[in-house]
Amino acid sequence: MVILFNNLICEKHDNIYVIKINREKYLNSLSEEVLKELEMAVDILNDDEEVYVGVIIGQGKAFVAGADIDAMKDMNFEQARRFSKLGTELFRKIENCDKPIIAGINGFCLGGGLELAMSCDLRIASTKAKFGQVETNLGILPGFGGTQRLPRIVGIGKAKELIYTADIIKADEALNIKLVNKVVEPENLLQECIDLGKKISSKGQLAIRYAKCAVNKGYEIDLDNAINLESYLFGLCFASYDQKEGMSAFLEKRDAKFDIQKDISNNK
Predict the structure, then answer these.
(1) Has 115 been annotated as catalytic?
(2) How many angstroms separate the CA atoms of 88 and 94, rounded?
(3) Which of 140, 146, 185 is nearest to 162 (CA)?
(4) Exposure b/e, 70-100, CB count within 10 A at least 16 = b
(5) Ranges of H-type helices in the chain
(6) Closest among 95, 83, 58 to 142, alpha carbons compared
(7) pLDDT, tens digit (0-9, with 9 covering 90-100), for 13-70
(8) What dihedral angle (degrees, nearest 10) is formed by the CA atoms of 91, 211, 217, 99?
(9) Checking phi first, is residue 107 left (phi over 0); if not, alpha (psi -120 to 50) or beta?
(10) Mean pLDDT value of segment 104-133
């Protein structure tokens, strides 16, 4: 199934929902329209009970080369603040989506593009990918969460260096500083993302969702409360079909047949 937006192409590959940003002429830059369409696509991904994992990737030579500078250059304070809020709320929605989302990064991943990639759970880059939080070249700072997510991923010192200098780094350095999880050849990028999505889809999906919640929420609170959250979610797993099936399959030395739909049906 394919869903076409003005700037997106969305496709389902079994339990994987692929969102392709299709604005090649502008290197997939993030206009207000693109941000709103991405929000609609993420809502579809999250609401579709047959989808377990999402993939966001760019068409052509870029993942996302940044925000739409032509649309931004004449903004006043209020307009810029609203634009920032639009982006930050979308990226927070991606971050808090029940389902894991993988960024497939081909070519330029700059400014708002890097901020979009960092809001995803996992990042796979092609060997041709280039990364940068380049806003200081334009006389601004990152406005879609870059000053907050980049230090959490690469450490505060490296994050300040990248933000202050606006340096652009290649895929191998991005891997070295743990900005990305894996680097692959460009022609293999989409398939690598789908394969990783399928691997995740083969696990207990309720456990995946609880694990994402535990990691994300736990990272934002003190350790004692984070451990209490983990214990609570651990306990909830034992009220699920997937836990019974997973442990039975282990003891019976067979492959588990997880089915989150049974837990969804039981909770309706």
Answers:
(1) yes
(2) 10
(3) 146
(4) eebeeeeeeeeeebbebbbebbeebbebbbb
(5) 32-47, 69-72, 77-96, 112-119, 146-154, 156-165, 171-176, 189-201, 205-219, 223-237, 241-251, 260-266
(6) 83
(7) 999 999 999 999 999 999 999 999 999 999 999 999 999 999 999 999 999 999 999 9
(8) 20
(9) left
(10) 98
Check 135, 161, 192, 230 and give the catalytic one: 135
The DSSP bridge pattern shows strands 8-13 and 16-21 to be antiparallel
The identity of residue 266, as a single letter, is N
Q: Give me the count of residues in the chain.
A: 268
Q: Is pLDDT above 90 for 76?
A: yes
Closest CA to 209 of 182, 246, 236, 248: 236
What is the residue whose two structure tokens read 């895929």? 171
The reply to whether 135 belongs to the active site is yes
For 132-183, how does the pLDDT look when each residue is reduced to its tens digit (9 = 90+)? 999 999 999 999 999 999 999 999 999 999 999 999 999 999 999 999 999 9
| Active-site residue, from 37, 89, 115, 173 | 115
CB distance 64 to 21 below 8 Å? yes
d(CA 103, CA 42): 13
> Pick from 49, 224, 55, 212: which is nearest to 124 by CA?
55
CA distance 171 to 60: 17
